[in-house]
Amino acid sequence: MIGVSNRTEPQSLTKGPGRQLFERAVHHGGFIAGTAIVLVVFAAAIGAGVLSPYDPYIQDLGSRLIPPVWQDGGSWKHPLGTDHLGRDYISRLLHGARISLLIGCVTVAISGTLGTILGLVAGYFGGRVDAAIMFLITVRLSMPVVLVALAIVAIFGGSLTIVMIVLGLLLWDRFAVVIRSSTQQIRDLDYITSARALGCSTPRIIASEVLPNVLNNLIVVATLEMAHAITLEAALSFLGLGVQPPLPSWGLMVAEGKDMLLFDPWLIAIPGCALFALIFAINLVGDGVRDITAPESRS
Question: How many helices (H) and strands (E) are present in the chain, helices listed first?
Fold first, then answer.
């Protein structure tokens, strides 16, 4: 009688890379929490038209400065109260999420594309090409982002489109520096050398061999810069040079409520907490992606 072996291979050897990444993601509390918050904000932004109980632009001076429902004088008719023009605060908060996420995503798309191309080219070719691109990065780093953005927006006028373009053209340097460094580390590895020996073109090597292997670093930088862009937009709107009224930007909501800080602090606290929660969650996602894709880099 032939015996049947019950020996099995170690479980760790049977797991593919995708399974390992999934398990790391599931067990990473910060990544799960950050992703949950970001998804909630995205859902609120997408469904703002359905979820908002009122039109965020309609003014009702007879209902101005109604406090939130948890304060004396609050009403469930306006759970988060109304602003100085009688506009429903929860409706403006939901539509303001659209503005923040739109600016973050478009800014990252512009700056990420520009910075990634420059970083790949500088890191892969090196030499004079690298020196020229590093000169551009140095010039960019010598310019304070907030001051330059203020100057450009003051010249061309504040609007949603102008803010997205300006921030996109000012926040590419971190993408370029990180992708350049990552590309330099892998450009002489065996699989890159093999691709050259097989006669693959330079654009194909960069697109199919180099870019996929720096993608995790790209995602981490993208999350950081998205949070940075949302913060800068809020700062510009607070100063009156960003998104212009009556658009319900969270930064603009803070600016409109600053005069009532001592009497109705919730006018600033509510959009301020929303900004904090979104930026904190995006950073948690970025930190989680770094830990999940490169666990050996964790301290």
Answer: 14, 0
Residue with tokens 């490169």: 294
pTM listed for this prediction: 0.85
> At 32, which helix (H) or strand (E)?
helix 29-46
Give the separation between CA 16 and CA 230, rounded to whole angstroms: 37
Bridge partners of 78, per DSSP, are 75
Give tens-digit pLDDT for 278-289.
999 999 998 888
Q: How far is 227 from 278, CA to CA, in rounded Å? A: 8
Q: Cβ distance 141 to 176 under 8 Å?
A: no
Helical H runs in 239-265?
250-257
- CA distance linking residue 243 with residue 86, whole number of Å: 20
143 close to 201: Cβ distance less than 8 angstroms: no
Domains, the chain, in order of start with CATH, read 22-297 (1.10.3720.10)
Contact 86, 61 (CB under 8 A): yes
Q: How far is CA 17 from CA 27, 171, 292, 293, 297, in A?
A: 16, 32, 11, 10, 17
Rounded-to-integer distance, Cα 183 and Cα 177, Å: 10
DSSP 184-197: HHHTTSHHHHHHHH
Task: Give the integer Cα–Cα distance in Å for 37 and 285.
Answer: 10
Q: Which of 91, 16, 10, 78 is nearest to 48 (CA)?
A: 91
Quote the tokens at residue 281. 């969650």
Phi/psi-derived region of residue 240, left when phi > 0, alpha when psi is between -120 and 50, beta in every other case: left
What tens digit of pLDDT does each residue of 180-209 get?
Answer: 999 999 988 888 888 888 888 899 999 998
Query: By the 8 A CB rule, do 206 and 124 touch?
Result: yes
Maximum CA extent, the chain: 92
